[in-house]
Amino acid sequence: MQLGLFLDDNSGVPIYKQLANGIEQRILTGQLEPGFKLPSSRELAESLVVSRCTASKAYELLQFRGLIMSHPAVGTFVSSTVPNRSAAQDGIEEPAPIKQPKNEEPHRLSDYGAHIMSSQTIGSADVELFPELNFGAPAAENLPLVKWQEALVRATRTRTLRPQDYRSDALGCEVLRKALADYVRRTRGITCSFEQIALFSSAQSALDLLSRLLINSGDVTAVENPGFPGVRRTFASHGATVCPVPIDKHGLMVSELSRQPATRLVYVTPSHHDPSGAVLSPVRRVQLLRWAQANQAIVIEDDFDCEYRYTDTPLPALFASDDTGCVVYLSSFWKTMFPVLKLGFVILPPRLLPAVRRAKSLIERDFHSVEHEALAHFINEGHLERHIRRTRAIYARRRAELIARVNTHLGSRVRMSPVSAGTHLAVQFDLAVAEEVLLQLACQAGLPMVPTSAYYASEPGNCEMLIPFAHVDETHLAFAIECFASILTAHVDQQICT
After folding, report:
1. Phi and psi of 251, rounded to 5°?
2. 166 in any annotated domain
3. Strands, DSSP E only, in 323-463?
4. Same domain? 188 vs 244
């Protein structure tokens, strides 16, 4: 146990008293709290390379001062009540106060640091973390905790350290990358080698690294509007000019990209647009790939929420149709396994592999190998896909209940997204009621609901809301919608009367 004490052999103060004074100062300043267990005199002597007699004399002096208590066969502890003593007594000198600069200016930052602190485009990091939507994660009771714990225990018990384990691959655990390559082939129609897969601590960290490699300050990047606000913030943090591209019921309006000169990078969610749920149509997928090839641009495909479609047959990933090497596939386990598992991964075209490998070796090359081996077993044994099938059935039932209740109690007052996918329902209110009032009434009724305004780069949708259903059971949804409709009707009637 280290106490951070330093002794001066050239001082006129005896070593035992220096030692006692050093411990006393830490007690009086609160660094060692009442009840804190101190090292034994032997441990203290060994750590400071002094005799045990010196350490014992220091403890005796501290006990005399009432600062420590010794209990035979138990240990030595800081006293529960520390006497009110002057720090200057017994040779303890008051430390010189730290001189404060006259002008308390922040420390000079790099261009990147100054940019992220001053840019109005970047904004808050909390805008997309909506607790009302359960942060976009599954409910705790729907997580496959037992199977996941079994996979972790199995990986721990079968783990043996080999010399090669000390040479980590910057792209991640090979056994997991192989499992993921098989998984995306089965579920997303992607044929790739495991060497093309890179693991990250999250999808956000993957996006940040890709931005560093692909964006220079002033480069033009395109994003969906409305769209995930975290992407706009990440691109802007690296100095990009972020151009919002509108979406409609067929997804990103690819024709609008030709109006953005020299666009270097496009971020798109073709399988399930957030928040509308729109799917990029086959025609526009072809247009986007042709545009990217003609303009030597990179498309980052975030396969957001691809697991949860309830009626339509899912289209393969955009990456599966790319034969020119312009698409980077981005995914994570947020929608299926968060918060017990935090992991993102990308599938890269071969031409980007050397740069990503080198960049990752500089900033993120070590992983939780046991957790990754457990996930590989979890995937290979089919537990992940069974979990998705089970939760998909639960979410489909809850979505149907939500839509039925909205139709019954709100009727023509709202318009709903026709897309049967995702974990929340996008609705737009056709009422002369302020957005803030709608949120207040929903809160009173116990109905979780958030506005989509944060998703818009400009001109947010009027009274457009998201109502989650994945983590809310049918009984609560039915009661909350009925209660909300009753409160809303009373409010509207009162407005008419006044």
Report:
1. 95, -155
2. yes
3. 327-332, 344-347, 414-416, 424-429, 450-451
4. yes
pTM, two decimals, is 0.77
Q: Dig out the tokens for 490 from the structure.
A: 């009373």
Q: What confidence score (pLDDT) does residue 166 get?
A: 57
**What proportion of the chain, given as a percentage, has pLDDT over 90?**
49
**Taking the mean position of all CA atoms in its chain, how far away is CA 264?**
26
Shared domain for 440 and 421, answered yes or no, is yes
pLDDT(89) > 50: no
**Do residues 476 and 447 make contact, with C-beta atoms less than 8 angstroms apart?**
no
DSSP codes of every residue in 242-297: EEEEEEETTEE-GGGGGGSTTEEEEEE--SS-TTT-----HHHHHHHHHHHHHTT-
Question: Are 192 and 205 part of one and the same domain?
Answer: yes
Note the pLDDT tens digit of each residue in 129-149: 677 777 677 788 889 999 999
b/e burial code for range 333-370 (CB count within 10 A of at least 16 → b): bbbbbbebbbbbbbbbbeebbeebbebbeeebeebebb
Residue 308 maps to a domain? yes
**Pick from 85, 64, 76: which is nearest to 36 by CA?**
76
Q: In this structure, what token pair is assigned to residue 66?
A: 């009432």
Residue 8 inside a domain? The answer is: no
Q: Which residues of 392-415 are buried (b: 16+ CB within 10 A; e: fewer)?
A: eebbbebbebbbebbeebbeebbe
Looking at the fold, whether 341 and 434 belong to one and the same domain comes out as: no
292 and 413 housed in the same domain: no
Residue 49's domain comprises 15-91
Q: Per the structure block, which two tokens stand in for 32?
A: 């060692």
Q: Are 322 and 289 in contact (CB under 8 A)?
A: yes
Residue 487 lies in a domain: yes
**Domain end residue (candidates: 381, 410, 430):** 381
Looking at the 3D structure of the chain, how many domains does it have? 3
Three-state secondary structure readout of 303-327: CCCCCCECCCCCCCCHHHHCCCCCE
Whether the Cβ atoms of residue 492 and residue 431 lie closer than 8 Å to each other:
yes
The order of strands in the sheet holding 37-38 is 37-38, 75-78, 68-71
